Amino acid sequence: MFKDKKLLVTGGTGSIGGSICNYFNKNGCEEIFSTTTSLNKIKSEQDYIKFKELDFNNIENSNLDEILDFEVDYLVLNAGLNKDNIFLRMSLEDWNTVINVNLNSSFHLLKHFTKTMVKKRFGRIVFISSVVAHTGNPGQVNYTSSKAAISGLMKSLALELSSRNITVNCVAPGFIKSNMTDSLNETQKNVILNRIPMKKLGNPNDIARAVGFLCSENAEYITGQTLHVNGGLALI
Amino acid sequence: MSDIEERVKKIVVEHLGVEEAKIQSDSKFIDDLGADSLDTVELVMAFEEEFGCEIPDDAAEKIVTLKDAVSYLTDNSN
């Protein structure tokens, strides 16, 4: 499905990022690149991925021309983190870190990769957003702000680049079994399960397949959209 | 016509699909030659490739006519 194409997925050592890489690899993607904060995190079964070490909290001081010295057809902006706290207790540092990693890194990566997409008249850009960008979530003003901003960025960029056969979309996961939800305790998990009509958490592969769809020929007329993958948790 | 002007004109003709005879040195890419804002970015990328130089964003924004491009590239190309 993705023959002769090159993909970069940021944050490929995480559950969702790893699953996206795996899905594209199984479906014939020619070359898969990823970024990670530390090359020590790479798992042995990920030897098909070309990992580059990059700290998104300090990306403006990184030489992207040197580190990411390749072109891609598919760009999946997946890397992200959360530093939760109620707003009245949230530090400026935790606000800035989340905005830097989840939002500002996208500016730099898009600047780096979109010029060649324009030139080639082809590109598929997919952001991994979140259901909470649309619903809000207590304890996550930094995280929800970063993801809601991505939604605006995605729409404006979709309008700017659509004439060059570049689509820009979001996949918004609900609660997915991942390193982010692993940190929840049983009580928190049960509260969440009760809110999900399908009564189960999603799998990282559910997100990977949605990303795969948006990059495939089946989605060539879809741009500026958010695909919600959340088991019915929020109908937006 | 200088060599630089000729090469710039060739790029403009190729990228914007306009007839060479219609391009005056002070024709504006957007207003007179039908370019959109992304076309101007692509023109600058093509100039960079042809002349082996890097045109910073603030200079690129000032290149709105053939004359602007020729004058910038005369001063800055290798």
Give an overview in words.
- The complex is a heterodimer of chains A (236) and B (78).
- Chain A has 236 residues and is an alpha/beta fold.
- In chain A, helix 3 (92-120) packs parallel to helix 5.
- In chain A, strands 3-2-1-4-5-6-7 form a 7-stranded parallel beta sheet, sandwiched between helices.
- Chain A contains 8 helices and 7 strands; from the N terminus they run E-H-E-E-H-E-H-E-H-H-E-H-H-H-E.
- Chain B is mostly helical and 78 residues long.
- Chain B has a single domain, classed as ACP-like (Non-ribosomal Peptide Synthetase Peptidyl Carrier Protein, Chain A, Orthogonal Bundle), CATH 1.10.1200.10.
- Chain B contains 4 helices and no strands.
- In chain B, helix 1 packs across helix 2 (37-51) and helix 1 packs across helix 4.
- The model of chain B has no long low-confidence stretch (mean pLDDT 92).
- Chain A binds chain B through residues 115, 118-119, 160-161, 163-164, and chain B through 36, 38, 41-42, 45.
State the gist of this model.
Chain A is an alpha/beta fold and 236 residues long. Chain A has helices at 15-26, 64-67, 92-120, 132-135, 141-161, 179-182, 186-195, 204-215; strands at 6-10, 31-36, 49-53, 74-77, 123-128, 166-173, 226-229. Chain A is globular, with a radius of gyration of 17 Å.
Query: What is the oligomer described by this structure?
Result: heterodimer
Radius of gyration of chain B: 11 Å
CATH architecture level-2 label of chain B: Orthogonal Bundle
On the 0 to 100 scale, the average pLDDT of chain A is 96
Unreliable parts of chain A: none
Q: Mean pLDDT across all residues of chain B, rounded?
A: 92
Radius of gyration of chain A: 17 Å
